[in-house]
Amino acid sequence: MRDATLCHLVREARSASGEWAESANDETLLIHKKRGVGSDQYVGPGGKVEPGETPRECVVREVREEVGIEVRDPVKVGEFEYYSEDWNALVHVYRATEYAGDPVETDEAVPEWFPVDDLPLSEMWATDRDWLPTVLAGGTSRGRFVYHGGDPRLVEVETDVPIERTAGVDHATS
Ligand SMILES: COc1nc(N)nc2c1ncn2[C@H]1C[C@H](O)[C@@H](COP(=O)(O)OP(=O)(O)OP(=O)(O)O)O1
């Protein structure tokens, strides 16, 4: 099975005085994908892990390539198995709040910030609604999804499960 990554970057809300504000006002960066798996949908930036690369290295590279942002603190918060007729993957999900740069459009993606409580779920993978709100709120999730004809046929999701929270180190895939 192919390893892939997703990054859910959270821009934490602050009040006018610079204090932390309600987390409901946080925003997350999604991309409208121009090509590849899930094109024409919104999804977190990410992509396939290259040989010899760790998932953490991959997620940093993919976010840089897709939207021009340098992610500083990706923490692994989820792991999902996806099966479909033409795409099987083990997807490593990261949450990050520290980054440098402003998102830019590239030939792969159009970036857009969304409030965490107002996601474009009807234009995202159907199963994102089963785990993404938990991850954006700082929780963890693990799941197994089987798609057929573009629709989810099997959905198994656990939330707030132990995930090896590899803030700095993880392992290269073969
Ligand atoms: C239900 O299935 C999926 N849900 C979500 N949220 N994300 C998914 C699903 N299946 C795949 N993905 C994501 C995981 C990766 O970020 C990408 C992988 O595809 P992509 O084609 O973008 O990979 P790249 O390496 O960027 O592509 P190139 O080969 O064109 O460089 O999709």
Topology (elements, then pairings):
Blueprint: E1 2-11, E2 27-33, E3 42-43, E4 46-48, H1 55-67, E5 70-71, E6 75-83, E7 89-96, E8 99-100, E9 109-115, H2 128-136, E10 141-148, E11 151-159
Parallel strand pairs: 1-7, 6-10
Antiparallel strand pairs: 1-2, 1-4, 2-3, 2-9, 5-8, 6-7, 10-11
The structure holds ligand LXYW25GO.
Number of helices: 2
Ligands in the model, by name, code or SMILES, are: the ligand COc1nc(N)nc2c1ncn2[C@H]1C[C@H](O)[C@@H](COP(=O)(O)OP(=O)(O)OP(=O)(O)O)O1
CATH class: Alpha Beta
Inertia-based shape:
globular
Round the mean pLDDT to the nearest integer and report it. 91
Number of domains: 1
Helix content: 10-25%
Taking all Cα atoms into account, the compactness measure Rg is: 15 Å
Number of strands: 11
Fill in the CATH topology: Nucleoside Triphosphate Pyrophosphohydrolase
Query: N-to-C terminal Cα separation, in Å?
Result: 11 Å
Main sheet makeup: 9 strands, mixed
Residue ranges: pLDDT <50 for 5 or more in a row?
none
By CATH, the architecture is named Alpha-Beta Complex
Report strand %: 35-45%
